[in-house]
Amino acid sequence: MNSTPAAIPDRCVQADKTSSMTNLFKSVLLSIRHCIKWIFTIFVIYCLSCLTGIIMVRSKNKFASSYRDKIVGNAITNDNASINYNKGNRFKAAIIDFSENLFISAIPQTFMGLSVIFPFFTSAYQGWIGGIVLLTGHIKAD
Question: What is the C-alpha to C-alpha distance for residues 16 and 12, in angstroms, rounded to an integer?
Fold first, then answer.
């Protein structure tokens, strides 16, 4: 008598993989459906704060213009990715920029997203910064 278990047909294994992927996909869609209003709220806050930054710079607001000049000047002189890019080391600049975006921004943002209030403030700030630096080089500060 053979004591080894019968071989499982390949189609059964494939069906198990497919159903687990389908369940995962359905779970992700359900999660997104449950939090869509908050995703949309963060999006609106980001867009409004970005527009606010653009309007402030276009109207030559001294605070926004000086803050923009400080951020851009600091990035050009002190940011390793920017320095390498200006030297022509584009690949190295991209790797540095990627790692900074991951470790300085993405991971902390993920943990802050677990709270209730921090994502609203960080989205507003990032949108405003994006708005004021968007027009760098097009509008000079007075």
Answer: 6
What is the C-alpha to C-alpha distance for residues 141 and 66, in angstroms, rounded to an integer?
7
Tell me, rounded to whole angstroms, the distance of Cα 34 from its chain centroid: 21
Say if residue 141's pLDDT is above 50.
no
Helices first, then strands: H and E counts in the chain: 6, 0
The answer, yes or no, to whether residue 10 has pLDDT greater than 60, is: no
Q: Rounded CA gap, 137 and 69, in Å?
A: 10
Distances (CA, A) of 135 to 47, 82, 94, 138, 142: 15, 18, 22, 5, 14
